[in-house]
User: Fold these one by one.
Assistant:
Number 1:
Amino acid sequence: MASQANLRQKQTKVLCFANNKGGSGKSTSCANVGYALAQQGKRVLLLDGDMQMNLSLSFFPEDQVLEMAQGEKNLYHAIREQKPLTDYILPTAYTGLDLIPSSTLMSGIEYELFTKWQREMILKKCLQPVRDSGEYDYILLDAPPTLGGWVMNLLCAADALILPVEASPWGLFGLANMFEFLAAVREMNPTLTLLGIALTKVSVRKNYFKQTMEILGEMEDVYVFDSIIRVDSTIEWAQDSSRPVGAYKASSRSAQEYAALAKEVEARVHRKE
């Protein structure tokens, strides 16, 4: 019979938000889906894997984020020293929602990983004690807008990929490269799935939104979330106040859209179990 710890571990799902194109709404989606899941009663850990630290800035003021980045309790130092990530978790202001902050030093993480043994699996190894603890229902990883060894680390540590795509004329640019990279990662992490494409920065009246939907609809075995995230200045105001949009203004359209997306994400996760 499986132990209680193993049963809890099976319930912990690791989802990576990644897109090699910048401006896709990746960090914004990771932050707000994470917040929405926590508001829906889930225990969520966010991991900021991007040197730009936008995920960290979504929950902490800039001066505090810079202080964390310059200290030693951040992801860069954990990965460089290959230490368990349990010691790098910080609580946010929101119940059930914790964060592992990033650092500007993450810009050099590719160099740090280059000579390491099984370098693609270092994050997975560091994250394993957190998964084994069973403390979280979801661990959400925010990847930088690149393709390389560090993003491969993030995807090798994940159960599934959520691919935010900006509904713009350039939003689909590089998507083929992302799919090729995903295929390469699956050689090391064969259970990794594409949970779905999340459309962001949507203006439903624009022709390119319809064109984007048509192109995505022609792709085989690619799920597009029904819940879209439309252009909304409330998101920018929320970011300026270092809060997720649901905490900034729960009645806003974008807060409701991210809540709907979070429910759809959870439904997809459980459907694939």
Number 2:
Amino acid sequence: MQNRNSTDGEILPNIDKILIIRTDGIGDLLNSTPAIALLRQNYPSAEITVLARPLNADVLIGNPDVDKVLVLDRQGEHRQVTAQLKFYQSLRNEQFHLVVAMQTATLSHLIAFLSGASYRLGRYQKRFRSTLTHAWKGKYRKGETHEVDRNLALVKLVCKGEGTRKLVFNLLPDETMHAESELVSLEVGSDAFLIGIHPGGSSFDKRWPEKQYAELADKLVRQYNATTLLLHGPNEKKLAYNIQKSMHSNAIIYAPKSIRELAALLSCCNMVVCNDSGPMHLAAALEVPTVAIFGPTDHVAWRPMNENASVVRMDMPCWPCSAHKCKIGWECTKKLPVEMVLNTAMTTLDMRRK
């Protein structure tokens, strides 16, 4: 096994088929797209396949660096062990030459090994690390390195060049037109100053409280004569309606039917306000002015990769922390003042207008 952290990569010979494993979140996959682009740059004739999950697979539609997407559905089609084993055998039948375990997880390392690929690249953490042929052995402390740079550092073991930190996400023309048509049906005028708010998040500790969102929305409506578009996921309907009920101004509530529709609607907004979440990374990839509310998460590693985005957070003496074991009720998120978020939003918009 080669354990190197040098930026001078080793170009591997006879690489015709590459598999990249990324079966985690939307943001995880989006922040891997610069590394995928660097692989494409270094292996231009190779067929690049990404192993994703149902949640994040559609992020790759329209990505010029990806030839195929395979979906591992461990909660559905591949829930049974026999179905998973059959799926892994199908991966082996693909005869990949290089597998990149970009997701640092025991299962990723195992899948890379089961693939039978001659070269298996991953990070030297988790179990089955001894099965890797090329491993990145560095360590990252909180507050130092963005996820994009971590992924680039990994693939640079088998690539040359620096790559770019720009996320790759492309909307199709009909998706944009559909979003614009949907806004018309929601009675959003073409000249409206549209502020998208997505108050959801993958866990409780990441969610700014409903009343604060309602107060912020009212202030932004008054400040910019804005229209508020409250977007929510499948299990967040109550969250959106609670915010609307607490508002003094009107808001449009809408549940996008897919990640692609959500992204298209975000692209129509003049600004997006959201928690640290998948929609935050979608807005960043689309270069929409974004205000990202962070609590205990590492904001340096996971901030939106977008020059038009701003992070707002409370600097707590207990950070970096273990969020799920918080002893003070996630004050960093739950007590974040509305004025801090409002001022950040106003500054973000002012910078955009210059």
